[in-house]
Amino acid sequence: MAPGLVEPTAQFADLHSVDTKSPLKLKASVNYVPGRNFVEKHDETYKYEDLRPRFPDLHWPALEEVPYNDKGLLGDPEFKHLLSSATDVFDYNPKIGTEVHGVDLANLTDAQKNDLARLVSTRGVVFFRNQTNFDIDAQRELGKYFGTLHSHATTACPRRPGLEDVHVVYTGEGSPDLRALFTPTFLWHSDVTYEVQPPSYTSLKVLTGPPRGGGGDTLWSSQYAAYDQLSAPMQKYLEGLTAIHSADLQAQGSRDLGRPVRRDPVTTEHPLIRTHPVTGWKSLFFNPGFVTKIVGIPKTESDHIISLLNEIVATSPENHARFQWNKDDVAFWDNRVTNHSASYGFAPHRRHAVRVCCQAERPYLDPNSKSQEDDLSERYGIPKANKDGSGIVNYND
Ligand SMILES: O=C(O)CCC(=O)C(=O)O
Ligand SMILES: [Fe+2]
Asked: Above 0.95 for ipTM, yes or no?
């Protein structure tokens, strides 16, 4: 037991269960202390020693533009190949997040992979539980089916050589609590959007994590929904704007920690509203982590737009999906149309995850594309949100 942690006591647990033989006498049957979980003993021989983080002192040339053909375009509109073997499928809410049971990500046909891409494009993030066959080699193979894998310039890669295109998330013994470094709003981000071809399909597998209820959930925020949340004049205004995404802060953060920067940091201008090539939907393309400036407008206005978009991304629960991990669970997200945020406060548990993603198309805006709400309302008659408040007749506190 780590110093400072309280072992759940029978005395405390007594309060929570009743002896059926003598109903008035309380008896311990569970060890429960609210908010306190046993700390697992760290084995000397950790199962994923080869996937622990390292920061190799390498230097790579600038990324070159690569061809990208979105496999989601080949997917079935009803995902019938992928879902043919599913035992359960359910959405987290209307805007984002779907959980699929009964599918083994390590054994998909090409038709199922295409459907997976289409489902992830449509739902923003899709969760698969207990993917024990889906090891790091299978994870990379599936990633490569979707496109050229992206290698991160600063974050950790696994100790095992040859996996430099895998990003390692690791919090363990002696790790600082990242709340000391990041504000909760800044924790929201999409990955490496400063690249000319920011990633699309991204998988994250948790290898080791806190026990159930021990924290370390991840949240995703839909940028399709963020776009739909804006008023029509604001949508029009933002459609004419571009934003600067910069890797400078991330690179400086690594240098400050004495870590290598493996590729020179880049700064790229991207449209603030983009069109998704598979769904054809417009989405916000904003990143609280890397957007430094909106181009061509006064600084005060740029700062306020950034602040408004930060608020929309981070504080609109109806646009969020929150995932409580068990080990071997996998989240697949479309990094083009979602932001995500880790959550902290799970110390002193070890949490270890590996991420693989591929480079996608250069972001573009097709002014004739539709929003998610417009398209779903036209196709299925799903009512659109009333954004001006005129429909409010009553609300409860
Ligand atoms: O650790 C998490 O929950 C998310 C980490 C993350 O942002 C990433 O791997 O891209
Ligand atoms: Fe991330």
From this structure: yes
